[in-house]
Amino acid sequence: MAFGEIESWDRGDGVRLAFERQPGAGPTFVWLSGFRSDMGGTKAEALAIWAQDAGQSFLRLDYSGHGRSEGRFEDGTIGQWRDDALALIDRFSEGPLVLVGSSMGGWIALLIALARPERVKGLLLIAPAPDFTQRLMWPSLGAEAQRQILDQGRWDMPSAYDPIPTPITRALIEDGKAHLLLDRPIPFRGPVRILQGALDPDVPWEVAVDLVRALESDDLSLSRIKGGDHRLSRPEDLERLVETASGLARQLARAS
Asked: What pLDDT is attached to residue 4?
């Protein structure tokens, strides 16, 4: 299959989910995007090129309401987006997995690792944002925004990355509470690599530190990247990302 060929799959309710898969050696690396991001971003593209050059199996996807997938963004929740990713992973990949999650994708990756412990062998997390709806988003909203979400079910939040406001729904907030992870040990014991920008204005590095404390893995590293922001998309950031992915691929190939 040629690099860049986008496929789609109907999840059963008329919503088609977009994905791209590249054949290669295992484990399959799976790209999981952040909140309102998509599989066409700079980091996902860098990993796709690396996977093609290295002959590594690679799958990237868009949750419903994101990128090339159908559905309304405001109808989505953490649980729904996790289920979207799980459905595509289950149907269009085989064997062991390394989940690469950026920001919210880090939360999704952790939830998938817990749902498929027999398949997920490693995690590569970029500015991971587990529990962000409760821990970061809700406290940052003013009283009027919180009231509107509770009373009317929605508030349109201005975005620093997009001229179109981001709809924040009561369903998103309430569903997020059902998927919180940092309040207890996370029973994942495979290798974990966390890349965190020291100047991240959206997800403080302390979140990554709390995640390190919660994870039960003994093979875990947290890289606090000097000068790095939330996106970690500078040339040197992308080089570090590819090097980290390559190292995980070699380590897990040796262990198989």
From this structure: 60
Summarize pLDDT for 139-163 with one digit per residue, the tens.
999 999 999 999 999 999 988 777 8
179 carries an active-site annotation: no
Q: Which two tokens stand for residue 194?
A: 């966390």
Q: Is 159 a catalytic residue?
A: no
CB 65 within 8 A of CB 73: yes
From the candidates 33, 64, 93, 230, give the one annotated as an active-site residue. 230
Superfamily of domain 7-131+188-255: Alpha/Beta hydrolase fold, catalytic domain (3.40.50.1820)
Using alpha carbons only, give the angle 97, 107, 72 rounded to the nearest 5 degrees: 100
pTM more than 0.85: yes
From 62, 200, 202, 237, active-site residue: 200
Residue 230 among the catalytic residues: yes
Task: Write down the domain spans for the chain.
Answer: 7-131+188-255
Report residue 246 as tokens: 């390559």
Catalytic residue among 37, 69, 102, 103: 103
